[in-house]
Amino acid sequence: MPVAPRDAGRSGRVTLVGAGPGDPGLLTVAGREAIETADVVVADRLAPWEALAWAPPHAEVVDVSKIPFGRSTSQDEINRILVERARAGHHVVRLKGGDSYVFGRGFEEVQACAAAGVPTTVIPGVTSSVAAPELAGVPVTHRGLVQGFTVVSGHVPPGHPDSTVDYAALARSGTTLVVLMGVRTLPAIAEALVEGGLDGATPCALVADASLPSQRSLRTTLAKAASESAAAGIGAPAVAVIGHVAALEP
Ligand code: SAH
User: Is residue 4 part of a domain?
Assistant: First the structure.
C-alpha cells in the first residue's frame, strides 16, 4: 500500500519496538501506542503479525524477513529502509521479536540511524530468554537454589572460530544457563558443558514457540537434551534452560 504524503515540515523518526515472544498480548502498551502512530512498520519473522492490525490504515508494512541475500547484506538493506523512510518524514516502527537488544541487532539499527541523523526511541520488549522458560513453568532464578542466570547464543557451536563463549566457565558459573538459537548446536553445547564439569544429570527444559498456540516444551537432562528434543519435535525458535530450576514444580 502506498504511503500517504506527510507534512513537508515534519521530521521523521524510528521507534524500535520489542514485540515479545509472539503472543500480541505480550507486547507492551508503549509498543502498541507506537504501532498506532506508525506510517511505516518494518517487521521481521519473529514479530507477532497480529500486531500489524493496530497500525493506521495508511501505514506501509515492510516484511524484512522476505529480503533476500546474505545476513549482512539484508541488515544493510533494513538499515537503508529505516533511514530512507524516516528521512521522508515518516514515523517508522521497527518491530522485532522479544527485546530488540537481545541478539536482535537492534543497536546496529540505532547506530545506522544515528549516523544518518535520524532520531530513535527504543521500547523494551519481553525477551524470550526469560519469557519462554517462564511460560513453560520454569523460573530462571529461585531463592535458595540459584542466584543468577546467563543467556548465551548458540548460533555458532563451541570451538567454532567465531564463538567467544567460554563453555567451561559457564559450566562452573553456578547460574541457570539459557541458550537461544541453540536447537541445531545443542549436542555440541551439551558436550562442551559436560566436558567443562557440569553434571550430565543437570535438569534441562526446552521450550519451542513459547506463547504461541503451537508452544511445546520438554523437561529432560543435559545429557539427554539433544536426542530427546529431536524426538519430541522441538524446532526453532526454541530456548534451552539448563540448571536446577528446570526440575522445579509449583
Ligand atoms: N530478541 C529476541 C531473540 C532473537 S534471537 C528475544 O529477546 O527474545 C532468536 C531466538 O530467540 C530463537 O532462535 C529462539 O532461541 C528465541 N526465541 C524467540 N522467540 C521465541 C519463542 N516464541 N519461543 C522460544 N524461543 C524463542
Answer: no
CATH number of the domain at 66, please: 3.40.1010.10
> Alpha-carbon distance 246 to 202, whole Å?
9
The range of the structural domain enclosing residue 33 comes to 13-123
Q: Cell 518491530 identifies what position?
A: 95
> Does a structural domain hold residue 1?
no
Angle, in degrees to the nearest 10, between helices 222-231 and 186-195: 170
Q: Which three cell numbers stand for residue 168?
A: 567451561
Kind plus residue range of the DSSP H or E element containing 249: none
Give, as one character, the DSSP assignment of residue 239: E
* Exposure letters 105-120 (e unless 16+ CB within 10 A, then b): ebeebbebbeeeebeb
Helix (H, G, I), strand (E, B) or coil at 70: coil
CA of 100 to the centre of ligand 1 (A): 11
Helix 71-87 vs helix 106-115: crossing angle, to nearest 10:
50
Pocket lined around ligand 1, Cβ cut-off 6 Å:
21-22, 46, 97-99, 102-104, 127-129, 132, 180-181, 207-211, 236-239
Q: In this structure, what CATH number is given to the domain that contains residue 200?
A: 3.30.950.10
pLDDT at 8 over 70: no
pLDDT digits (tens, 9 = 90+) for 87-134: 999 999 999 999 999 999 999 999 999 999 999 999 999 999 999 999
pTM flag (> 0.85)? yes
Digit-coded pLDDT (tens) for 15-70: 999 999 999 999 999 999 999 999 999 998 888 989 999 999 999 999 998 776 66
Assess if residue 181 is contained within a domain.
yes
Q: Are residues 47 and 112 in the same domain?
A: yes
Ligand 1 atom at minimal distance to the Cα of residue 104: 1
